[in-house]
Amino acid sequence: MDSQAPGAAPRGIEAIVIDLIWAGMLAAGALSAFLLLTVAVRKWPVVGVVAITFNVLVAWEFPQLPAIANVGGTSVYLLDVLSLLFIVIALVDIKRVSAHLGALRWVWAGFGLSMLFSLIVGVVEIEVGKAVNEFRAFFYLFAALSWVVSLDWRKQSTLLLTRVPVVLGWLLVAVAAYHGVRFGFGGAGEFVDPSSGIEQTTRPLVSGQALVLLLCIPLTLRLWVQSASSFLLVSAIAFGAVVVVVQQRTVWAVAAAMVAAFYFSFWGKHRTKSVIAAVLIAWGALVLVTSNVAGDFVGKLIAAANDSATYNARVTSWQNLIEQSFDKGLGTALFGAPFGSGYGRFEGVGRWVEFAPHNWYVTLFVRVGLVGTALFLFFVLGAIYRVLKSNSDVSALLVLVATLVYGWAYSVAWYTAIFLGWAVIVGRDTTRAEESKEQQLIPLPLAQQRQLRVPIGSGEHD
């Protein structure tokens, strides 16, 4: 027995060494692949745009794509890798991010630090897996927007402002048509079980997809104004029709807010045209509702708009979460409970739920507190102020307003950053950019483009 014992130890050590070597090889391979992908996305941003577009298109079937690895008991998803990649690129191009955001860079950095602080506390005090799971919803948006802001808009404005809105809009129309044909056009109270195994309502698009489609409308109309292409006008009308059909009431509210914002910015210069357009739209809607042209379809839309049971339950749960945060003390109210704390609360009478609240501002408050919530609001409102002050592209104003309103009923969809990032920086004051080529990164406002008669996508200012 003594002769066998010495032989057993070397075999155990050998197995450990082999495992370590294998783990090292896997880590080296993963790191190499990550670095290569990072270089590719930085050199060809279209790769990142395609990745974001893909996630938008499959959001109905796969709200979260399957995990690609497991590290220390915590699942790693493709979006984790993509978001980390976006952050690395933003850090590499930090000078451009700073030039684009101006003073708002400190606000955005503060918001990021508030999230990081909550994550670290959650990892230390609660559990790595739970903290990371809750952190993802914040990190994806922060990373994607940081990446979009880091892009060289002299080169990328053609891609993001002329191609993506139209192509992505029509792809979402095709997705909605496919879901409508396969599962029918239902409302929030009707459910199906698609092939992914996730129960989903029979509305043809999820709210985030419907929001992206809505954002494609002003950006497509922006191109139509410049080119007078009938295809672009038809595209915008088709996008709007699908937004109505998919019965996402929050997105309807967002659309109404965008129309109001448009009229607010349009009223002073074109008051007569504004009044005429408003009268025609109201008259057309009245004719549609009071006639039998649309049959039962209009009735379904009206019933969907009047169904407030879900919203009332949500309001109750929001109030309970806010009260819980204040009950935990001033520190939690100011800086939030750490990631991983959970969202358990009563929703309505006797119904206990633990999913994230369908309100971006409540979600922010319970995780990054009043400080983090104020920083996010100041960031978006600051961008709106700059757009209004600089009389920049009205499309940017509509994207920013849509983000603010949508956040009241849902968490802000991370993939909207593909348009939101542009909207944040388009109002940046570029009058001082002549002093430094590093700052000449933002496309000219629409009015200036017309005056200079520079065609869309030309190399003169892209």
Task: Describe this protein's structure.
With 462 residues, this protein is mainly alpha-helical. It has one domain (31-452). Helices cover 70% and strands 4% of the residues. The chain is built from 18 helices and six strands. It has helices at 4-43, 46-57, 78-92, 94-101, 104-125, 128-150, 153-183, 207-227, 230-245, 249-266, 271-290, 296-306, 309-327, 330-335, 360-390, 394-406, 417-426, 446-452, and strands spanning 67-71, 74-77, 191-192, 200-201, 345-346, 352-353. The strands form three sheets. Strands 1-2 form a two-stranded antiparallel ribbon. The chain has a two-stranded antiparallel ribbon with strand order 3-4. The longest helix has 40 residues, at 4-43. The relative contact order is 0.12. Residues 288-307 and 430-462 have low confidence and may be disordered.
List its salient traits.
two-stranded antiparallel sheet, mainly alpha, 18 helices, 462 residues, globular
Give me the count of strands: 6
Query: What class, by secondary structure content?
Result: mainly alpha
Give the proportion of residues in helices: 55-70%
Radius of gyration: 25 Å
Task: Give the strand order, joined by hyphens, for the main sheet.
Answer: 1-2
State the gist of this model.
Helix content is 70%, strand content 4%. By secondary structure, the protein is mostly helical.
Chart the SSEs and their pairings:
Blueprint: H1 4-43, H2 46-57, E1 67-71, E2 74-77, H3 78-92, H4 94-101, H5 104-125, H6 128-150, H7 153-183, E3 191-192, E4 200-201, H8 207-227, H9 230-245, H10 249-266, H11 271-290, H12 296-306, H13 309-327, H14 330-335, E5 345-346, E6 352-353, H15 360-390, H16 394-406, H17 417-426, H18 446-452
Antiparallel strand pairs: 1-2, 3-4, 5-6
Helix pairs in contact: 1-3, 2-7, 3-4, 3-6, 4-6, 5-6, 5-15, 6-17, 7-8, 7-9, 8-9, 8-10, 8-16, 10-16, 15-16, 15-17, 16-17
